[in-house]
């Protein structure tokens, strides 16, 4: 569908080809709201590269708002830190984002639709009332979101061995018993326990055992423990 005020695009390639110039032309405000880094990052980066322009320019306010899904793994957190270090403001919302969108200079909004067979649809809107409404939604969510600097990086995913140690801690086994049950040397077991205590934030074996028991009862792993 295409009108003077609404254009529908299919896939990131078409987004960059037909709307990339809007990204590069931004002068006052560039707002991004997305569930995670997969929605817009590739297309936005490609547009700026093709336009041979840096993301941050004098006088341009750039804000990126994501949900906790963007902190799902250490690499995503590192990417967000690089974005923030470049001068872009980044915040994380604890709740869902009403609409994944890019809002440019208060005049244009680009809405992302859900993937269909792996391809997203994007709707470019120039209708002032729609753009103003989306910008108001963005601002309301931004005000209650947490600055990236205050968000803890997720620990790396647990291995099967680490989960086994988690169970031995929860059961209160001695190091000798835990090592025998897991089929590792006592020295290796103790080193793995020390690593896991750091992940749990525990200062003693007793505390680690209590934390491990609680996590297992809740059906989560330390990677989910924030």
Radius of gyration using CA atoms only: 23 Å
Mean pLDDT, to the nearest integer, reads: 83
Give the total of beta strands: 8
Number of domains: 2
| Poorly predicted sequence stretches spanning 5 or more consecutive residues | 218-226
What are the SSEs and their pairings?
Layout: E1 6-10, H1 11-25, E2 29-34, H2 41-50, E3 61-67, H3 74-85, E4 89-93, E5 101-104, E6 108-112, E7 121-125, H4 128-144, E8 146-147, H5 160-171, H6 175-182, H7 186-200, H8 205-218
Parallel strand pairs: 2-3, 3-4
Antiparallel strand pairs: 1-7, 2-5, 4-8, 5-6, 6-7
Structure notes:
This protein is of the alpha+beta class and 226 residues long. The chain has 2 domains: 6-150, Endonuclease Chain A (Endonuclease, Chain A, 2-Layer Sandwich); 160-224, Orthogonal Bundle (Arc Repressor Mutant, subunit A), CATH 1.10.10.10. It is 46% helix and 17% strand. The protein has 8 helices and 8 strands, in the order βαβαβαββββαβαααα. An 8-stranded mixed β-sheet has the order 1-7-6-5-2-3-4-8, sandwiched between helices. Strand 2 (29-34), helix 2 (41-50) and strand 3 (61-67) form a beta-alpha-beta unit. Helix 1 crosses helix 2 (41-50), helix 5 crosses helix 8 and helix 6 packs across helix 7. Mean pLDDT is 83; it is low at 218-226.
